[in-house]
Amino acid sequence: MTPDWREHLDQAKSKTAHLMRKLDRLNSPERSVLFYREAPAAERFDPALYQELAAAAAARVPLARTSFLLISPKGLAAPGWTSLRIDDPRAEPWSGDPAVWDPALASLGYTVRPPERRDEASPAARTA
Question: For 16-30, what is each residue's pLDDT tens digit?
Fold first, then answer.
């Protein structure tokens, strides 16, 4: 943590509010929203926390069709989440290696659609 972390709180709050407004715009029966969480190998894993996270996320967009993807090097599983075992060798800065991610996501029937509008990034969409 940097010594001046408090000076950045307003910026972080503003960005969070902006992202939540974008998420709220997805609350429609015509929308599918994929929430994903990458669980690093060093993180303590508690499936109950993932259930709580899924419930809170789904409650934010109750009209949309929601799905949850749990990505981890060990293939961790939690109720209500699809598990994807993947170990991307690129850790920092994270950009993802398409040679690793594209086949892994395709194996579950996921593809990425280009954004519909510049100010609203489309989530990955399940095509299967």
Answer: 999 999 999 999 999
Residue 80's Cβ-side half-sphere holds a number of Cα atoms within 13 Å equal to 19
Token pair 């407004």 is found at 21
What are the backbone angles phi and psi of residue 44, rounded to the nearest 5°? -70, 130
Contact assessment for residue 69 and residue 35, using Cβ atoms and an 8 Å cutoff: yes
50-76 per-position pLDDT tens digit: 999 999 999 999 999 999 999 988 899
Amino acid at 20: M
81 exposed, middle or buried (CB, 10 Å; 0-12, 13-18, 19+)?
Answer: buried
Taking the CA atoms of the chain, what radius of gyration do you get in angstroms?
A: 16
Given a contact cutoff of 8 angstroms between Cβ atoms, the answer to whether 19 and 54 are in contact is no
Q: Locate tokens 């040679």: which residue?
A: 99
Exposed (0-12), middle (13-18) or buried (19+): which is 50, by Cβ within 10 Å?
buried
